[in-house]
Amino acid sequence: MAYTTINKSGDYFNTKLYTGTGSSNALTGVGFQPDWVWIKNRTDAQSHVLQDAVRGVGNTIISNNTDAQSAEGAGDLTAFGSDGFTVGTNGRVNGSGKSIVAWNWKANGAGSSNTDGSITSTVSANTTAGFSIVKWTGTGAIATVGHGLGVVPKMIIGKGLDVVNNWLVYHPTTGNNKALALQDTGTGFTGSHLWNNTDPTSSVFSLGAVGATNSSGDENIAYCFAEKTGYSKIGSYTGNGNTDGTFVYTGFKPVFVFVKRTDGTDNWFINDNKRNPFNEAENPLRPNLNAEEYSGTGYGIDMLSNGFKVRTSDQGFNASGGNYIFMAIGQSLVGNNNVPCTAR
Predict the structure, then answer these.
(1) Closest C-alpha among 149, 135, 118 to residue 221
(2) What does pTM read for this prediction?
(3) Element (H, E) at 238
(4) What is the spatial distance between Cα 294 and Cα 66, in angstroms, rounded to a whole number?
(5) Segments making up each domain of the chain, as ranges
(6) What is the pLDDT of residue 71?
(7) Is residue 18 within 8 Å of residue 97, measured between CB atoms?
């Protein structure tokens, strides 16, 4: 069994489902004051909305396009509350009668100055859960940026805020000379200009002279994730091409699974236990598309007590010999209070 110091994953990550009202809507039941909120209208073709406490409410970035940060976010998320958040009147976060999901992470508020890197950053770090939000101003030259986790991050999702440019995703499986783009289906970009051919350390990650996250004078944001035993797992798997698919061991019961094929063109996928309370979980949302929630068969996974099992031969999840990266968040089998986690 996987033992962990995190006895309740819901203290650090939670999925909130709600129905839009069309007017200002204060939502509770998250279980903590969130510092990063990712919202998607499940019913309509509407963009994904990402806001965080470091950039402040009213500042939206969108995972399914390359746009700069938008002031239109003033109608998206309007406040972070002690047990949730308030949404405005924009249909993508609060369309009347629409089914909406919000994924919520706890960091450490608005953040503080970090001088570990050659660039001073603003960092909101939750070292217990292995998650930090990092904001910095680019220099246009090779640099390092402090992330505040105290351990090596295994996934970094970054975006320039002032420029129309790609999202950049670092994962150790793809390496320090490659970045995947969150907004598209491709296999990514290569070059030393991305991460300076340098792996992250326990204190900093490296940047090349790339305009996407390091244009001189432009602000940038990154969401950094480290593994925590019994709570989060970041890794890779190989597909087998049939419906009795690959089993991926995490050491906990997943509540959130994020997947991308790296050796072929396909979507990013998110499954969670709130929209899919029973196996098979067959209703992924796709961060690179504004599309509504997928409904039907062909994208199924089982969320098990100690990992997830792919139940589809679709190439987005399980091409024969295909390479995939994933991040999973969940609940430990047994925490330090010896309370077991049951299967679903």
Answers:
(1) 135
(2) 0.95
(3) strand 232-238
(4) 23
(5) 3-105, 112-225, 233-335
(6) 74
(7) no
